[in-house]
Input
Amino acid sequence: MKKHILSLTRRPSAGARGANRGGAARTAAPGARLGWLDALRGVAALIVALHHFDVLRLLPFGGFVWRNFDMGLFGVMLFFIVSGYIIPASLERRGDVRAFWIGRIFRIYPALIAALALSIMILPKGDGSVALLRTGDDLASLVANGLMLQDMLGVINSMNVTWTLCYEMIFYFFVTALFTRGLHRHSGPVAVVCAAAALGVGTAVGSQLLSTWLGSTRLLLLVVTPIALAGLAGVLTGRRWLTGAGAALLGGLGLVLITLNGRAPWFQTWMIFATMFAGTAVYRAQHAGSGRTRTLSLVSCGFVLVAGGLVGYLYNRGGFEDHTWTSGWRAWSFSYLAAWAAFGLGFLLRGRRFPRVLTWLGAISFSVYLVHFPLLRTIAPLVGVPPLPSSTLGRIAWTAIFVAAVLAASHLLYRLVELPMQDLGRRVQRAVDRRWPRTAAGLAAGTVAGPVAGAPAGPVPPQRTAEEERARMVAAGRDG
Output
């Protein structure tokens, strides 16, 4: 989950100022241009936190909302849309598969490890919020969660919220495989195929079929682990044919796992990937160089929206709502459509500069997502919850304590772990590039110095080098 804050750009040279003077009035400032993504991600993270906080129980109309709208599903679907929009763009901007994966590794793992360690230290004795070393098979737990494929391997998530990271990881597999084969511009049709699978199959295919067939989680891990590691090793080599082979392994592994061994019902698993690729299709439509590409992307998004509403009505009932953690079809469908509505509103306002508090919340949103539940389980006993406060003032105070603690802890985790580790990741990337120069690792998209794939032809302002662009994006908190 990438984070974005206001841009910190270098002062342009006189020549660059002259070259850009004509377009300055027509182009939004970088901070305004990406502030909408910050706002969406920040809002999504806070809503997920309040969902686990069970804020609806504190409201007089909470029961009605719960029956018709699921805050948690809304938040994670909004996350998935934003990831679908920005992650492929990040890979194409880099034009370098290895740099993309190094950035991802240093972006996600350090914060996750720190959050797990902090949670283990602060959680009350006997609390099961962190299950990493408490499953009865610590080795399987460490390997599956280390690969971030646990939700597809029948292994308990290290934390209750990390199931979404599994979907993010497999999305990276798919994006990498498509990119290395020059198919990344076909995200619209891919989204349609995923949505059609969700709509057509629904619940006809069972969950975790491989786990049942192999009969042992460890046996499944013995098969999956070398394939995943070989694929990652391939994309990290920087060599063209090894990158392509590694990407193919990762893409194939991801496809097998989501088809045969997902924990969630088939319709939800495939709608998640349809949603992320539809987010990419929005990016394609925005930067389309032809009317045909724009139309195809928009039609694909429309199909995904319709499918997302229908699958909830058709399948999220008869006990399957227990597997999606929602109250029924209304909660699933309305929340899904609301996530798209929120994204659409943010997209329409993308040219405006958003309040700094929202861009800051977007910057720390990954930390908010990771720490809010352990903090809730730690703070609640200290203030005597449960039972919930009976007075309105008491409920407001309890909510304020929780939100303040989450935001403070998340800011510290962001400043002390996320930012330094991203900086370390950049240094590692430069060292790797010096030691093992890549050979056309970006096979399908242009380099950073070129125009965005699918952008209209015509005069463009002076371009930064790849290194300058990465430095600028990192300084703005937008990279990886």
